[in-house]
Predict the 3D structure of the following.
Amino acid sequence: MGGDARRSGRARAARAGALDDEYSRARPRRRWRPGAELRIMRVLFIYPNLYTQMGFNHGLASLSAVLRAAGHETRLVNLNENLPPVPTADDVVALVREWQPGLVAFSCLTMQYPGALEMARHLRSRARDEGFHLPPFAVGGIHPTMVPELVMRDGVWDHVGIGECENALLELVTRIERGESPDDVPNFISWRGGERPSGAADGAVTDEEWVRNAVGEFPALDDMPEPDYELFDTARITAQKHGWFGLMTSRGCPYRCTYCLNHRVMDLYKADLGRSVAGLGFLRYRPADKMIAEIQGVLERYEVGTFILDDDLFTMNPEHAIAFCDAYAAAGIDVPFVVNSHVKRLDPRVAEALARAGCRILKLGIESGSPRVRTEVLKRHMSQRDILETVASADSCRLHTSAFLMVGLPTETRDERWETVDLLARARVGRFRTSFFYPFPGTEGYDFAVSGGYVSRDLQSEVSDFTDGSILDFGPEENLFIDKLGTVMPWFVNSRLDRFGAAPAAARYHAPVKDVLAMDADEWVAFKPGVRELDAELSAVCVRAGELHYAIRYNAFMGVRSDYYLAEEVGIEWATAAAKPVGERLMDLALAAAASETC
Protein backbone atom coordinates (compact mmCIF):
# COMPACT_ATOMS: atom_id res chain seq x y z
CA MET A 1 0.00 0.00 0.00
CA GLY A 2 1.37 3.41 -0.94
CA GLY A 3 1.86 6.41 1.30
CA ASP A 4 -1.18 8.26 -0.06
CA ALA A 5 -3.40 5.33 0.78
CA ARG A 6 -1.94 5.10 4.28
CA ARG A 7 -2.52 8.81 4.89
CA SER A 8 -6.12 8.60 3.76
CA GLY A 9 -6.76 5.41 5.70
CA ARG A 10 -8.38 3.81 2.65
CA ALA A 11 -7.63 0.40 1.23
CA ARG A 12 -6.06 0.25 -2.20
CA ALA A 13 -7.88 -2.22 -4.39
CA ALA A 14 -5.78 -5.34 -4.74
CA ARG A 15 -6.36 -9.04 -4.62
CA ALA A 16 -4.35 -11.60 -2.70
CA GLY A 17 -5.40 -14.91 -4.18
CA ALA A 18 -9.08 -15.36 -3.42
CA LEU A 19 -8.89 -12.95 -0.49
CA ASP A 20 -10.04 -9.34 -0.84
CA ASP A 21 -7.66 -6.61 0.29
CA GLU A 22 -10.16 -5.50 2.93
CA TYR A 23 -9.29 -8.59 4.92
CA SER A 24 -5.65 -9.19 4.11
CA ARG A 25 -3.36 -6.28 3.50
CA ALA A 26 0.36 -6.20 2.71
CA ARG A 27 2.36 -4.05 5.06
CA PRO A 28 5.16 -1.84 3.68
CA ARG A 29 8.59 -2.07 5.22
CA ARG A 30 9.74 0.54 7.72
CA ARG A 31 13.09 1.88 8.85
CA TRP A 32 14.93 0.81 5.72
CA ARG A 33 18.38 2.38 5.70
CA PRO A 34 20.28 2.42 2.39
CA GLY A 35 23.21 0.06 2.59
CA ALA A 36 21.93 -1.67 5.73
CA GLU A 37 21.50 -5.43 5.68
CA LEU A 38 17.80 -5.91 6.32
CA ARG A 39 16.35 -9.36 5.79
CA ILE A 40 12.58 -9.35 5.50
CA MET A 41 10.09 -11.97 6.58
CA ARG A 42 6.38 -12.05 5.93
CA VAL A 43 4.03 -12.83 8.82
CA LEU A 44 0.38 -13.68 8.25
CA PHE A 45 -1.88 -13.04 11.24
CA ILE A 46 -5.20 -14.88 11.50
CA TYR A 47 -7.87 -13.57 13.87
CA PRO A 48 -10.85 -16.00 14.11
CA ASN A 49 -13.29 -13.47 15.57
CA LEU A 50 -16.49 -15.20 14.43
CA TYR A 51 -19.92 -15.13 16.09
CA THR A 52 -18.98 -12.53 18.64
CA GLN A 53 -18.84 -8.75 18.83
CA MET A 54 -16.92 -7.03 16.09
CA GLY A 55 -13.90 -5.35 17.55
CA PHE A 56 -10.33 -4.24 17.31
CA ASN A 57 -7.55 -6.49 18.66
CA HIS A 58 -5.01 -4.29 20.45
CA GLY A 59 -2.58 -7.17 20.84
CA LEU A 60 -2.40 -7.91 17.12
CA ALA A 61 -2.04 -4.22 16.26
CA SER A 62 0.87 -3.96 18.69
CA LEU A 63 2.56 -7.16 17.46
CA SER A 64 2.29 -6.00 13.86
CA ALA A 65 3.69 -2.57 14.73
CA VAL A 66 6.76 -4.11 16.37
CA LEU A 67 7.39 -6.40 13.40
CA ARG A 68 6.92 -3.62 10.87
CA ALA A 69 9.22 -1.29 12.81
CA ALA A 70 11.90 -3.96 12.40
CA GLY A 71 11.30 -4.07 8.65
CA HIS A 72 9.07 -7.12 8.31
CA GLU A 73 5.79 -7.36 6.38
CA THR A 74 2.47 -8.32 7.92
CA ARG A 75 -1.02 -9.15 6.75
CA LEU A 76 -4.21 -10.00 8.57
CA VAL A 77 -7.08 -12.36 7.88
CA ASN A 78 -9.85 -10.92 10.05
CA LEU A 79 -12.69 -13.42 10.24
CA ASN A 80 -15.90 -11.77 11.41
CA GLU A 81 -19.39 -12.20 10.04
CA ASN A 82 -20.04 -8.47 10.41
CA LEU A 83 -17.32 -7.77 7.83
CA PRO A 84 -18.53 -9.63 4.75
CA PRO A 85 -17.50 -11.35 2.63
CA VAL A 86 -15.94 -13.62 5.24
CA PRO A 87 -12.88 -15.42 3.82
CA THR A 88 -13.30 -19.18 3.65
CA ALA A 89 -10.70 -21.72 4.72
CA ASP A 90 -9.90 -22.32 1.06
CA ASP A 91 -9.39 -18.58 0.56
CA VAL A 92 -6.81 -18.65 3.34
CA VAL A 93 -5.09 -21.65 1.75
CA ALA A 94 -4.85 -19.71 -1.52
CA LEU A 95 -3.41 -16.69 0.28
CA VAL A 96 -0.76 -18.77 2.06
CA ARG A 97 0.27 -20.41 -1.22
CA GLU A 98 0.47 -17.10 -3.10
CA TRP A 99 1.95 -14.75 -0.50
CA GLN A 100 4.24 -17.40 1.05
CA PRO A 101 4.60 -16.07 4.60
CA GLY A 102 7.45 -17.27 6.76
CA LEU A 103 5.12 -17.63 9.76
CA VAL A 104 1.36 -17.95 10.25
CA ALA A 105 0.36 -16.53 13.65
CA PHE A 106 -3.08 -17.01 15.22
CA SER A 107 -4.43 -14.95 18.12
CA CYS A 108 -7.46 -16.13 20.07
CA LEU A 109 -9.56 -15.99 23.18
CA THR A 110 -11.16 -19.16 24.55
CA MET A 111 -14.31 -18.82 22.47
CA GLN A 112 -12.24 -18.15 19.35
CA TYR A 113 -9.89 -21.09 19.76
CA PRO A 114 -12.09 -23.72 18.04
CA GLY A 115 -12.09 -21.55 14.91
CA ALA A 116 -8.30 -21.17 15.04
CA LEU A 117 -7.85 -24.92 15.47
CA GLU A 118 -10.22 -25.73 12.61
CA MET A 119 -8.41 -23.33 10.28
CA ALA A 120 -4.97 -24.68 11.24
CA ARG A 121 -6.09 -28.27 10.67
CA HIS A 122 -7.56 -27.37 7.29
CA LEU A 123 -4.31 -25.75 6.20
CA ARG A 124 -2.28 -28.77 7.29
CA SER A 125 -4.67 -31.19 5.60
CA ARG A 126 -4.59 -29.31 2.29
CA ALA A 127 -0.80 -29.02 2.41
CA ARG A 128 -0.45 -32.74 3.08
CA ASP A 129 -2.89 -33.73 0.31
CA GLU A 130 -1.54 -31.29 -2.29
CA GLY A 131 2.13 -31.37 -1.37
CA PHE A 132 2.80 -27.66 -0.87
CA HIS A 133 5.05 -26.15 1.79
CA LEU A 134 3.63 -24.65 4.97
CA PRO A 135 5.50 -22.23 7.24
CA PRO A 136 5.51 -22.75 11.01
CA PHE A 137 2.29 -22.06 12.91
CA ALA A 138 2.27 -19.99 16.10
CA VAL A 139 -0.72 -19.42 18.36
CA GLY A 140 -1.00 -16.84 21.13
CA GLY A 141 -3.54 -14.91 23.10
CA ILE A 142 -5.14 -15.45 26.46
CA HIS A 143 -6.40 -18.99 25.79
CA PRO A 144 -2.98 -20.48 24.96
CA THR A 145 -1.51 -18.50 27.86
CA MET A 146 -3.95 -20.03 30.34
CA VAL A 147 -4.11 -23.63 29.09
CA PRO A 148 -0.97 -24.26 26.99
CA GLU A 149 -0.98 -28.01 27.64
CA LEU A 150 -4.44 -28.38 26.10
CA VAL A 151 -3.38 -26.33 23.08
CA MET A 152 -0.17 -28.31 22.62
CA ARG A 153 -2.09 -31.60 22.61
CA ASP A 154 -4.01 -30.52 19.53
CA GLY A 155 -0.96 -31.36 17.45
CA VAL A 156 -1.05 -28.53 14.91
CA TRP A 157 1.11 -25.83 16.49
CA ASP A 158 4.85 -25.31 16.20
CA HIS A 159 5.00 -22.48 18.73
CA VAL A 160 2.61 -21.63 21.59
CA GLY A 161 2.95 -18.03 22.82
CA ILE A 162 2.57 -17.25 26.52
CA GLY A 163 1.80 -13.80 27.92
CA GLU A 164 2.70 -10.53 26.18
CA CYS A 165 4.74 -11.49 23.12
CA GLU A 166 5.85 -8.30 21.35
CA ASN A 167 9.53 -8.85 22.16
CA ALA A 168 9.28 -12.62 21.88
CA LEU A 169 7.53 -12.68 18.50
CA LEU A 170 10.12 -10.36 17.01
CA GLU A 171 12.85 -12.68 18.28
CA LEU A 172 11.02 -15.75 16.94
CA VAL A 173 10.62 -14.16 13.50
CA THR A 174 14.29 -13.15 13.46
CA ARG A 175 15.38 -16.69 14.32
CA ILE A 176 13.15 -18.30 11.69
CA GLU A 177 14.23 -15.82 9.01
CA ARG A 178 17.92 -16.49 9.73
CA GLY A 179 17.46 -20.25 9.84
CA GLU A 180 18.47 -20.35 13.51
CA SER A 181 16.92 -22.55 16.18
CA PRO A 182 13.89 -20.91 17.83
CA ASP A 183 13.91 -23.39 20.70
CA ASP A 184 15.05 -20.96 23.40
CA VAL A 185 12.93 -17.90 22.57
CA PRO A 186 11.33 -16.57 25.79
CA ASN A 187 7.53 -16.72 26.10
CA PHE A 188 7.26 -19.63 23.65
CA ILE A 189 6.72 -23.34 24.02
CA SER A 190 8.15 -24.77 20.81
CA TRP A 191 7.78 -28.13 19.09
CA ARG A 192 11.02 -30.04 18.69
CA GLY A 193 9.81 -33.57 18.04
CA GLY A 194 11.19 -33.91 14.52
CA GLU A 195 8.34 -33.70 12.05
CA ARG A 196 5.93 -30.84 12.39
CA PRO A 197 2.78 -31.80 14.39
CA SER A 198 0.46 -33.87 12.21
CA GLY A 199 -2.85 -32.54 13.45
CA ALA A 200 -3.77 -35.48 15.66
CA ALA A 201 -6.02 -34.34 18.49
CA ASP A 202 -4.88 -36.93 21.03
CA GLY A 203 -1.11 -36.53 20.97
CA ALA A 204 0.65 -36.75 24.32
CA VAL A 205 2.73 -33.81 25.48
CA THR A 206 6.27 -34.69 26.52
CA ASP A 207 9.40 -32.70 27.26
CA GLU A 208 11.16 -34.65 24.53
CA GLU A 209 8.80 -33.12 21.95
CA TRP A 210 8.40 -29.61 23.37
CA VAL A 211 10.83 -27.10 24.82
CA ARG A 212 9.26 -24.82 27.40
CA ASN A 213 10.83 -21.40 27.91
CA ALA A 214 10.25 -19.00 30.76
CA VAL A 215 8.55 -15.71 30.00
CA GLY A 216 10.67 -12.62 29.49
CA GLU A 217 10.16 -9.12 30.80
CA PHE A 218 6.89 -7.32 30.21
CA PRO A 219 7.29 -5.05 27.16
CA ALA A 220 7.98 -1.42 28.09
CA LEU A 221 5.17 0.75 26.73
CA ASP A 222 7.44 3.81 26.51
CA ASP A 223 9.46 2.13 23.76
CA MET A 224 6.54 0.58 21.89
CA PRO A 225 5.72 1.90 18.41
CA GLU A 226 2.21 3.16 17.82
CA PRO A 227 -0.25 0.32 17.15
CA ASP A 228 -0.62 -0.69 13.52
CA TYR A 229 -4.24 0.37 13.16
CA GLU A 230 -4.19 -0.22 9.42
CA LEU A 231 -3.52 -3.91 9.91
CA PHE A 232 -7.28 -4.03 10.37
CA ASP A 233 -9.82 -2.52 8.02
CA THR A 234 -10.09 0.16 10.66
CA ALA A 235 -12.06 2.74 8.67
CA ARG A 236 -14.76 0.19 7.93
CA ILE A 237 -14.84 -1.18 11.47
CA THR A 238 -15.04 2.32 12.94
CA ALA A 239 -17.93 3.21 10.65
CA GLN A 240 -19.81 0.05 11.60
CA LYS A 241 -19.23 0.85 15.28
CA HIS A 242 -20.77 4.31 14.74
CA GLY A 243 -17.47 6.11 15.21
CA TRP A 244 -16.36 4.36 18.40
CA PHE A 245 -12.60 3.78 18.38
CA GLY A 246 -10.56 1.80 20.92
CA LEU A 247 -7.23 2.93 22.42
CA MET A 248 -5.04 1.76 25.30
CA THR A 249 -3.01 4.07 27.54
CA SER A 250 -1.90 1.41 30.03
CA ARG A 251 -1.67 -2.31 30.72
CA GLY A 252 -2.29 -4.36 33.82
CA CYS A 253 -4.65 -4.52 36.79
CA PRO A 254 -3.71 -5.36 40.41
CA TYR A 255 -7.00 -6.97 41.41
CA ARG A 256 -7.61 -10.72 41.62
CA CYS A 257 -11.22 -11.09 40.48
CA THR A 258 -12.00 -14.78 40.02
CA TYR A 259 -13.52 -14.37 36.56
CA CYS A 260 -10.52 -12.46 35.17
CA LEU A 261 -7.18 -13.71 33.90
CA ASN A 262 -4.91 -10.89 35.05
CA HIS A 263 -4.02 -12.50 38.36
CA ARG A 264 -3.06 -15.77 36.66
CA VAL A 265 -0.84 -13.87 34.26
CA MET A 266 0.83 -12.13 37.21
CA ASP A 267 1.34 -15.47 38.96
CA LEU A 268 2.92 -16.92 35.82
CA TYR A 269 5.41 -14.06 35.51
CA LYS A 270 6.15 -14.14 39.26
CA ALA A 271 7.02 -17.83 39.06
CA ASP A 272 9.18 -17.55 35.94
CA LEU A 273 11.00 -14.35 36.87
CA GLY A 274 11.21 -14.98 40.60
CA ARG A 275 9.90 -11.55 41.58
CA SER A 276 7.18 -9.99 43.66
CA VAL A 277 4.21 -8.35 41.96
CA ALA A 278 5.77 -4.94 42.62
CA GLY A 279 8.99 -6.04 40.95
CA LEU A 280 7.30 -7.29 37.79
CA GLY A 281 6.35 -3.91 36.39
CA PHE A 282 2.95 -5.34 35.44
CA LEU A 283 1.22 -1.97 35.68
CA ARG A 284 2.59 0.16 32.85
CA TYR A 285 1.54 3.49 31.40
CA ARG A 286 2.15 5.23 28.11
CA PRO A 287 3.29 8.85 28.47
CA ALA A 288 0.52 11.38 27.94
CA ASP A 289 2.37 13.22 25.17
CA LYS A 290 2.76 10.02 23.15
CA MET A 291 -0.91 9.17 23.58
CA ILE A 292 -1.97 12.63 22.42
CA ALA A 293 0.24 12.36 19.33
CA GLU A 294 -1.25 8.94 18.58
CA ILE A 295 -4.80 10.26 19.02
CA GLN A 296 -4.15 13.22 16.73
CA GLY A 297 -2.83 10.84 14.08
CA VAL A 298 -5.92 8.67 14.41
CA LEU A 299 -8.19 11.70 13.98
CA GLU A 300 -6.37 12.63 10.78
CA ARG A 301 -7.10 9.21 9.27
CA TYR A 302 -10.45 8.07 10.65
CA GLU A 303 -13.93 9.42 11.32
CA VAL A 304 -14.00 9.05 15.12
CA GLY A 305 -17.01 10.03 17.22
CA THR A 306 -15.97 8.57 20.58
CA PHE A 307 -12.73 7.11 21.91
CA ILE A 308 -12.93 4.04 24.15
CA LEU A 309 -9.94 3.79 26.46
CA ASP A 310 -9.76 0.01 26.82
CA ASP A 311 -7.30 0.02 29.73
CA ASP A 312 -8.30 -2.56 32.32
CA LEU A 313 -8.42 0.19 34.94
CA PHE A 314 -7.78 3.71 33.65
CA THR A 315 -8.30 5.38 37.03
CA MET A 316 -5.91 3.08 38.95
CA ASN A 317 -3.10 5.65 38.93
CA PRO A 318 -4.51 9.15 39.61
CA GLU A 319 -1.36 10.90 38.38
CA HIS A 320 -1.48 9.07 35.03
CA ALA A 321 -5.21 9.67 34.63
CA ILE A 322 -5.00 13.37 35.45
CA ALA A 323 -1.95 13.89 33.22
CA PHE A 324 -3.78 12.30 30.30
CA CYS A 325 -6.96 14.31 30.89
CA ASP A 326 -5.07 17.58 31.19
CA ALA A 327 -3.08 16.87 28.02
CA TYR A 328 -6.26 15.84 26.18
CA ALA A 329 -8.01 19.07 27.13
CA ALA A 330 -4.94 21.22 26.41
CA ALA A 331 -4.67 19.72 22.92
CA GLY A 332 -8.22 20.88 22.20
CA ILE A 333 -9.42 17.40 21.22
CA ASP A 334 -13.16 17.79 20.90
CA VAL A 335 -14.02 14.08 20.90
CA PRO A 336 -15.68 12.49 23.95
CA PHE A 337 -14.15 9.38 25.48
CA VAL A 338 -15.05 6.43 27.70
CA VAL A 339 -12.97 4.87 30.49
CA ASN A 340 -12.97 1.81 32.74
CA SER A 341 -12.90 2.59 36.45
CA HIS A 342 -13.41 0.78 39.77
CA VAL A 343 -15.80 1.53 42.60
CA LYS A 344 -12.87 1.94 45.01
CA ARG A 345 -10.53 3.66 42.56
CA LEU A 346 -12.26 6.89 41.59
CA ASP A 347 -10.29 9.72 43.16
CA PRO A 348 -12.42 12.92 43.26
CA ARG A 349 -9.59 14.75 41.48
CA VAL A 350 -9.71 12.18 38.69
CA ALA A 351 -13.49 12.46 38.37
CA GLU A 352 -13.19 16.22 37.98
CA ALA A 353 -10.36 15.89 35.45
CA LEU A 354 -12.40 13.39 33.43
CA ALA A 355 -15.34 15.77 33.36
CA ARG A 356 -13.16 18.69 32.25
CA ALA A 357 -11.58 16.67 29.46
CA GLY A 358 -14.89 15.49 28.01
CA CYS A 359 -15.31 11.97 29.39
CA ARG A 360 -18.68 10.68 28.21
CA ILE A 361 -19.05 7.39 30.11
CA LEU A 362 -17.44 6.00 33.27
CA LYS A 363 -17.62 2.18 33.37
CA LEU A 364 -17.80 0.36 36.71
CA GLY A 365 -17.63 -3.38 37.34
CA ILE A 366 -20.39 -4.03 39.87
CA GLU A 367 -21.13 -7.57 38.60
CA SER A 368 -23.57 -8.57 41.36
CA GLY A 369 -25.89 -6.84 43.80
CA SER A 370 -25.22 -9.50 46.42
CA PRO A 371 -22.41 -8.66 48.87
CA ARG A 372 -21.88 -12.39 49.50
CA VAL A 373 -21.54 -13.24 45.82
CA ARG A 374 -19.22 -10.30 45.17
CA THR A 375 -16.95 -11.24 48.06
CA GLU A 376 -17.02 -15.05 48.15
CA VAL A 377 -17.55 -15.94 44.50
CA LEU A 378 -15.99 -13.04 42.59
CA LYS A 379 -13.49 -11.57 45.10
CA ARG A 380 -14.87 -8.12 44.36
CA HIS A 381 -14.36 -6.51 47.75
CA MET A 382 -16.74 -3.56 47.79
CA SER A 383 -19.80 -2.74 49.84
CA GLN A 384 -23.23 -1.53 48.75
CA ARG A 385 -22.30 1.82 50.27
CA ASP A 386 -19.08 1.96 48.21
CA ILE A 387 -21.08 1.40 45.04
CA LEU A 388 -23.77 3.95 45.81
CA GLU A 389 -21.27 6.62 46.87
CA THR A 390 -19.12 6.16 43.76
CA VAL A 391 -22.14 6.42 41.46
CA ALA A 392 -23.26 9.55 43.31
CA SER A 393 -19.75 11.03 43.06
CA ALA A 394 -19.69 10.43 39.31
CA ASP A 395 -23.18 11.91 38.97
CA SER A 396 -22.06 15.04 40.81
CA CYS A 397 -19.39 15.53 38.12
CA ARG A 398 -21.99 14.84 35.40
CA LEU A 399 -20.25 11.63 34.36
CA HIS A 400 -22.60 9.09 32.83
CA THR A 401 -22.08 5.80 34.70
CA SER A 402 -22.17 2.35 33.10
CA ALA A 403 -22.32 -0.80 35.24
CA PHE A 404 -21.11 -4.25 34.20
CA LEU A 405 -23.30 -7.06 35.54
CA MET A 406 -23.30 -10.84 35.42
CA VAL A 407 -26.20 -13.21 35.94
CA GLY A 408 -26.04 -16.95 36.47
CA LEU A 409 -23.17 -16.98 38.96
CA PRO A 410 -22.19 -20.17 40.83
CA THR A 411 -23.97 -20.62 44.21
CA GLU A 412 -26.09 -17.53 43.52
CA THR A 413 -29.65 -17.91 44.84
CA ARG A 414 -32.87 -16.50 43.40
CA ASP A 415 -32.99 -13.92 46.21
CA GLU A 416 -29.42 -12.82 45.42
CA ARG A 417 -30.33 -12.34 41.77
CA TRP A 418 -33.10 -10.03 42.90
CA GLU A 419 -30.51 -8.17 44.98
CA THR A 420 -28.77 -7.27 41.71
CA VAL A 421 -32.03 -5.89 40.33
CA ASP A 422 -32.65 -3.88 43.49
CA LEU A 423 -29.13 -2.42 43.60
CA LEU A 424 -29.53 -1.15 40.04
CA ALA A 425 -32.93 0.33 40.85
CA ARG A 426 -31.47 2.06 43.89
CA ALA A 427 -28.20 3.29 42.33
CA ARG A 428 -29.86 4.48 39.11
CA VAL A 429 -26.68 4.20 37.09
CA GLY A 430 -26.74 5.74 33.63
CA ARG A 431 -26.72 2.36 31.92
CA PHE A 432 -25.92 -1.27 32.62
CA ARG A 433 -24.57 -4.08 30.51
CA THR A 434 -25.78 -7.57 31.39
CA SER A 435 -23.82 -10.69 30.51
CA PHE A 436 -24.11 -14.33 31.49
CA PHE A 437 -21.28 -15.61 33.66
CA TYR A 438 -18.89 -17.44 31.32
CA PRO A 439 -16.02 -19.10 33.21
CA PHE A 440 -12.83 -19.03 31.16
CA PRO A 441 -10.37 -21.93 31.56
CA GLY A 442 -7.44 -20.93 33.72
CA THR A 443 -9.45 -18.66 36.03
CA GLU A 444 -10.46 -19.34 39.62
CA GLY A 445 -14.04 -18.88 38.52
CA TYR A 446 -13.70 -21.73 36.04
CA ASP A 447 -12.21 -24.06 38.64
CA PHE A 448 -14.97 -23.10 41.08
CA ALA A 449 -17.73 -23.68 38.52
CA VAL A 450 -16.32 -27.02 37.36
CA SER A 451 -15.71 -28.35 40.87
CA GLY A 452 -19.24 -27.34 41.82
CA GLY A 453 -20.67 -29.29 38.89
CA TYR A 454 -22.19 -26.23 37.24
CA VAL A 455 -20.59 -26.32 33.78
CA SER A 456 -22.74 -28.03 31.17
CA ARG A 457 -20.91 -29.38 28.13
CA ASP A 458 -24.20 -29.40 26.20
CA LEU A 459 -24.85 -25.72 26.93
CA GLN A 460 -21.21 -24.91 26.22
CA SER A 461 -21.57 -26.23 22.68
CA GLU A 462 -24.66 -24.06 22.11
CA VAL A 463 -23.31 -20.74 23.43
CA SER A 464 -20.85 -18.77 21.31
CA ASP A 465 -20.62 -15.63 23.44
CA PHE A 466 -21.23 -14.53 27.03
CA THR A 467 -24.17 -12.44 25.84
CA ASP A 468 -25.90 -15.45 24.25
CA GLY A 469 -26.77 -17.41 27.37
CA SER A 470 -25.35 -19.30 30.30
CA ILE A 471 -23.19 -22.42 30.06
CA LEU A 472 -23.92 -23.22 33.70
CA ASP A 473 -26.72 -25.59 34.63
CA PHE A 474 -28.83 -24.65 37.66
CA GLY A 475 -31.75 -26.89 36.77
CA PRO A 476 -34.62 -26.14 34.35
CA GLU A 477 -36.49 -23.67 36.57
CA GLU A 478 -33.49 -21.51 37.49
CA ASN A 479 -32.02 -21.74 33.98
CA LEU A 480 -35.26 -20.28 32.65
CA PHE A 481 -35.31 -17.49 35.25
CA ILE A 482 -31.67 -16.57 34.50
CA ASP A 483 -32.39 -16.38 30.77
CA LYS A 484 -35.38 -14.13 31.39
CA LEU A 485 -33.39 -11.90 33.73
CA GLY A 486 -30.50 -11.58 31.30
CA THR A 487 -32.83 -10.80 28.40
CA VAL A 488 -35.16 -8.19 29.95
CA MET A 489 -33.11 -6.88 32.87
CA PRO A 490 -34.28 -3.29 32.16
CA TRP A 491 -37.89 -4.38 32.74
CA PHE A 492 -37.02 -6.02 36.04
CA VAL A 493 -35.16 -2.90 37.17
CA ASN A 494 -37.95 -0.57 36.07
CA SER A 495 -40.50 -2.63 37.99
CA ARG A 496 -38.53 -2.05 41.24
CA LEU A 497 -37.70 1.65 40.82
CA ASP A 498 -40.62 2.67 43.06
CA ARG A 499 -39.05 0.82 45.99
CA PHE A 500 -36.34 3.48 46.15
CA GLY A 501 -38.15 6.76 45.57
CA ALA A 502 -40.78 8.24 43.32
CA ALA A 503 -40.87 6.40 39.98
CA PRO A 504 -44.15 6.57 38.05
CA ALA A 505 -42.74 4.35 35.28
CA ALA A 506 -42.47 1.37 37.65
CA ALA A 507 -46.20 0.70 37.53
CA ARG A 508 -46.07 0.31 33.74
CA TYR A 509 -43.61 -2.58 34.10
CA HIS A 510 -45.27 -4.53 36.93
CA ALA A 511 -47.60 -6.43 34.61
CA PRO A 512 -45.03 -7.20 31.85
CA VAL A 513 -42.59 -8.59 34.43
CA LYS A 514 -45.34 -10.64 36.07
CA ASP A 515 -46.28 -12.05 32.66
CA VAL A 516 -42.65 -12.91 31.85
CA LEU A 517 -42.19 -14.69 35.18
CA ALA A 518 -45.33 -16.76 34.57
CA MET A 519 -44.19 -18.03 31.13
CA ASP A 520 -43.08 -21.63 30.76
CA ALA A 521 -40.06 -22.50 28.61
CA ASP A 522 -42.00 -22.85 25.35
CA GLU A 523 -43.91 -19.61 25.90
CA TRP A 524 -40.67 -17.78 26.68
CA VAL A 525 -38.95 -19.07 23.54
CA ALA A 526 -41.88 -17.82 21.46
CA PHE A 527 -41.92 -14.47 23.27
CA LYS A 528 -38.19 -13.59 23.13
CA PRO A 529 -37.95 -12.54 19.45
CA GLY A 530 -40.45 -9.72 20.06
CA VAL A 531 -38.76 -8.30 23.15
CA ARG A 532 -37.02 -5.37 21.44
CA GLU A 533 -40.21 -4.23 19.70
CA LEU A 534 -42.29 -4.42 22.88
CA ASP A 535 -39.57 -2.65 24.84
CA ALA A 536 -39.63 0.22 22.36
CA GLU A 537 -43.41 0.52 22.76
CA LEU A 538 -43.22 0.56 26.56
CA SER A 539 -40.40 3.09 26.47
CA ALA A 540 -42.29 5.40 24.11
CA VAL A 541 -45.21 5.57 26.55
CA CYS A 542 -42.85 6.49 29.40
CA VAL A 543 -41.09 9.12 27.29
CA ARG A 544 -44.35 10.84 26.39
CA ALA A 545 -45.24 10.95 30.09
CA GLY A 546 -41.81 12.29 31.08
CA GLU A 547 -41.06 9.25 33.27
CA LEU A 548 -37.52 8.11 34.04
CA HIS A 549 -36.93 4.48 33.04
CA TYR A 550 -34.45 2.12 31.38
CA ALA A 551 -34.84 0.86 27.82
CA ILE A 552 -32.96 -1.69 25.75
CA ARG A 553 -30.72 0.43 23.54
CA TYR A 554 -27.73 0.03 21.20
CA ASN A 555 -27.64 -3.77 21.60
CA ALA A 556 -29.67 -6.57 23.16
CA PHE A 557 -27.79 -6.61 26.48
CA MET A 558 -27.68 -2.89 27.29
CA GLY A 559 -30.17 -1.05 29.48
CA VAL A 560 -29.88 2.74 29.12
CA ARG A 561 -31.55 5.40 31.23
CA SER A 562 -34.07 7.39 29.25
CA ASP A 563 -32.68 10.85 29.97
CA TYR A 564 -29.31 9.86 28.49
CA TYR A 565 -30.49 8.25 25.28
CA LEU A 566 -33.01 11.03 24.70
CA ALA A 567 -30.27 13.64 25.07
CA GLU A 568 -28.19 11.74 22.54
CA GLU A 569 -31.09 11.40 20.10
CA VAL A 570 -31.90 15.12 20.13
CA GLY A 571 -28.23 16.12 20.00
CA ILE A 572 -27.80 17.60 23.48
CA GLU A 573 -24.53 17.00 25.33
CA TRP A 574 -25.09 14.89 28.44
CA ALA A 575 -23.26 17.34 30.71
CA THR A 576 -25.63 20.08 29.54
CA ALA A 577 -28.76 17.97 30.04
CA ALA A 578 -27.60 16.70 33.45
CA ALA A 579 -27.27 20.24 34.77
CA LYS A 580 -31.06 20.41 35.18
CA PRO A 581 -33.16 18.64 37.84
CA VAL A 582 -34.35 15.21 36.67
CA GLY A 583 -38.01 16.13 36.31
CA GLU A 584 -37.31 19.27 34.29
CA ARG A 585 -34.68 17.44 32.28
CA LEU A 586 -37.06 14.63 31.31
CA MET A 587 -39.84 16.94 30.19
CA ASP A 588 -37.47 19.12 28.16
CA LEU A 589 -36.01 16.07 26.46
CA ALA A 590 -39.43 14.56 25.80
CA LEU A 591 -40.59 17.79 24.16
CA ALA A 592 -37.40 18.01 22.11
CA ALA A 593 -37.80 14.39 21.00
CA ALA A 594 -41.42 14.97 20.02
CA ALA A 595 -40.48 18.09 18.09
CA SER A 596 -37.75 16.25 16.20
CA GLU A 597 -40.25 13.53 15.20
CA THR A 598 -42.65 16.08 13.70
CA CYS A 599 -39.96 17.92 11.72
Summary: The longest helix spans residues 113-130. Confidence is low (pLDDT under 50) at residues 1-37.
